[in-house]
Write a structure and sequence with these properties.
The complex is a heterodimer of chains A (286) and B (324).
Chain A lengths: L6 E3 L7 E4 L13 E5 L4 E6 L7 H7 L4 E4 L3 H18 L4 E4 L6 E4 L4 H12 L8 E2 L1 H12 L4 H10 L1 H20 L5 H16 L14 H10 L10 E2 L9 H17 L20
Antiparallel strand pairs in A: 1-4, 2-5, 3-4, 3-5, 6-7, 8-9
Chain B lengths: L28 E7 L5 H11 L7 H17 L11 H6 L6 E7 L3 E8 L12 H6 L6 H11 L3 E7 L4 E9 L4 H4 L4 E6 L12 E4 L5 H4 L1 H7 L6 H5 L5 H22 L39 E5 L10 E4 L3
Parallel strand pairs in B: 1-7, 4-6
Antiparallel strand pairs in B: 1-2, 2-3, 3-5, 4-5, 6-8, 8-9
Helix pairs in contact in B: 1-2
Classes of the chains: A alpha+beta (286), B alpha+beta (324).
Chain lengths: 286, 324
């Protein structure tokens, strides 16, 4: 993904964030340009763009530098990633079985019913739409990365190798599909992980050996919507909740009814209003 | 004196689209939930029954429709040899995609529908289907389900999209004046959905069950389960740590206040026709100007109608292509 500042002066050190190599996981997506400091040149040089990832050999290659650096933009991304982790925790609710000595028989505590999970999830994802009811797809990708975890390594490698532009678009589109599915109340983590991998592979033009998604229910319309929703070339423009209002597809009508609630309840007091562009982002306007 | 048995539901708005809204009139509301397991089916029936209680459906029949359709929707997605699973096997088996149960209501009927892609071992064919149903000789699991469904539905729609293998089963039960008249008529309509289906006609509202005031609707059960007043008990069930719980609790409390007072589904009242209303009067919004033109786009080429005004189980039904 393009970013404006390929090189940064030494004075940028005061603002950059350190990324310890020990914390770097192979195949984890980067959500900021990543820099190393070249002592001889006294400059920070960008070595990874946003939405790229390190493989193990690359991590070994940068190890001599000791520390990597990222833009303070990661602070803007952090709340979306935190929201992804919260959503993951909600979706990870499992049966809990406990042996009760009081009753003398094992008690099974059922997980919450789907509508409660769906409601709790909407309370997490609703505020992400920002005060104007818009969200940039890049931040959706960050949210989904922490919700679903890393994509299969072989898919990521092959996709990046084939076409980096298509790879980034696939990441964004797959995340968008998961984000919309959550809004539709399709709150099963394993299925969402599978949905993401499937859309990613298809958009990248790769074969995915995972199970078929099926043609039942709303899935066909959902996939069509995920394909068509990102209109611009790079898929970076903000997406508006109100865009679904005039769509004729049943899935759009369902989504808009949920987004009406989002606009009424969550966005007016949302603290999320971030952009990859501008002074705080990594991409200059224009 | 008018013959009551001649009364029927209004015709569908589209026979070339999926979704219960296509069966209902343009002032309908649709409630839906996506299921990955059968575990909470009973509670979904509880919630929908509570939500539509004021419309006065035959509640037992309504619950039976939900359970039966969901049951078939799940089982038909598995290979034939695995359709009779024990509980443990079923819990381990994941659906290819969630089963969405839609429940819609207008001023004369409730429609319950599921849409799914049966497992490839299910051989589906519309050829001779009406005759097989009429003669009580269903050829496969889905056709057997149709025969059973007709016994306790006012009308059943069977939609099949050959291009994708997707089917949709929708069962109707009458409310208000049509409750007694139509609930034992068992008419079956069979429609082939084209590869590029029509857009589903609009509903006044689509409501995911998570957006409903479920805590209020199921209040008695919540008390029975020992939930406390502020809903913190249910939030703890998600297993979050203290810090993460804070956010949920905060949102949950605000939600409870808002939801029960005003966001239930709207607070105005809508009158449909002279006096009938959809669902609870308290829940009817008045912010849209609907026209009541419920023109039907009945397709004749690929549609079959079985029964209609006469019950299938009595063997007196009419069989033939609609419009013939």
């Amino acid at each position: 993904m393009d970013f404006t500042h390929r090189k940064l002066p030494r004075t940028a050190a005061a603002e950059l964030r350190r990324l310890n190599l020990g914390e770097l996981q192979p195949f984890a997506l980067m959500f900021s340009p990543v820099y190393v400091f070249l002592k001889r040149n006294e400059k920070f040089i960008g070595i990874k763009s946003p939405l790229d990832f390190f493989v193990e050999s690359e991590i070994e290659k940068v190890r001599p530098y000791g520390t990597l650096f990222v833009l303070p933009f990661v602070d803007q991304v952090a709340p979306y990633r935190e929201a992804g982790r919260r959503a993951r925790k909600i979706l990870s609710a499992r049966d809990m079985q406990s042996n009760s000595e009081e009753t003398g028989y094992p008690e099974v505590k059922l997980p919450p019913p789907p509508w409660e999970i769906s409601d709790a999830i909407l309370q997490v994802v609703g505020p992400l739409w920002g005060r104007e009811g818009k969200i940039e797809p890049f931040f959706v990708t960050a949210f989904v990365q922490d919700l679903c975890g890393s994509l299969p390594s072989e898919l990521l490698l092959q996709s990046r190798e084939n076409d980096i532009g298509r790879h980034e678009k696939a990441l964004i589109r797959a995340s968008w599909a998961v984000f919309l599915a959550l809004h539709l109340g399709q709150c099963d983590l394993a299925w969402l992980v599978h949905l993401r991998a499937r859309v990613f592979a298809e958009t990248s033009g790769l074969q995915h050996t995972g199970r078929f998604l099926g043609n039942g229910s709303d899935i066909t319309e959902l996939l069509r919507l995920a394909q068509s929703a990102l209109f611009d070339d790079e898929g970076l423009q903000p997406l508006s909740a109100s865009a679904f209002q005039f769509e004729d597809a049943r899935v759009s009508m369902k989504l808009y009814s949920r987004l009406e609630r989002v606009l009424k309840e969550f966005t007016p007091r949302s603290n999320y209003n971030e952009s990859i562009r501008g002074q705080k982002g990594f991409l200059a306007y224009g | 004196m008018a013959d009551e048995t001649l009364q029927t539901f209004q015709p569908p708005r589209s026979n070339r689209a999926f979704g219960v809204a296509s069966i209902l009139s343009d002032n309908c509301r649709v409630f839906y939930d996506s299921l990955f397991t059968t575990r909470h089916l009973g509670r979904i029936a509880d919630l929908l029954a509570a939500r539509l209680q004021k419309a006065g459906p035959d509640e037992l029949r309504f619950r039976a429709l939900i359970l039966f359709l969901a049951y078939e929707g799940f089982r038909c997605q598995f290979p034939l040899e695995l359709q009779e699973l024990n509980q443990e096997e079923e819990e381990e088996r994941a659906l290819a995609s969630p089963l969405t149960v839609e429940c819609g209501i207008d001023d004369e009927k409730i429609a319950v529908g599921v849409s799914f892609e049966p497992h490839s071992t299910q051989r589906l064919s519309l050829d001779g289907l009406a005759e097989r149903i009429q003669s009580g000789a269903p050829a496969n699991r889905i056709e057997r389900a149709l025969v059973q469904l007709l016994r306790f539905s006012g009308q059943v729609f069977y939609r099949y999209q050959p291009a994708t293998g997707r089917i949709e089963l929708i069962a109707l039960t009458g409310i208000g004046q049509l409750a007694k008249v139509t609930d034992s008529q068992g008419a079956l309509e069979i429609h082939e959905i084209p590869e590029d289906p029509e857009a589903t006609p609009r509903a006044v509202q689509y409501a995911e069950l998570g957006d409903e005031a479920y805590e209020t609707l199921l209040k008695d059960e919540q008390k029975g389960r020992g939930a406390n007043e502020d809903g913190a008990d249910s939030e703890k069930r998600f297993g979050g740590d203290e810090d993460e719980e804070e956010g949920l609790n905060r949102l949950g409390k605000e939600k409870d206040g808002d939801k029960d007072q005003s966001r239930k589904v709207g607070s105005g009242k809508r009158k449909v026709g002279s006096s009938s209303v959809i669902g609870s009067e308290d829940d009817i919004e008045d912010d849209e100007d609907l026209d009541s033109n419920s023109s039907s786009s009945q397709e004749t080429e690929k549609s079959q109608k079985v029964g209609g005004k006469e019950p299938v189980r009595k063997g007196r039904m009419k069989v033939g292509a609609q419009g013939e």
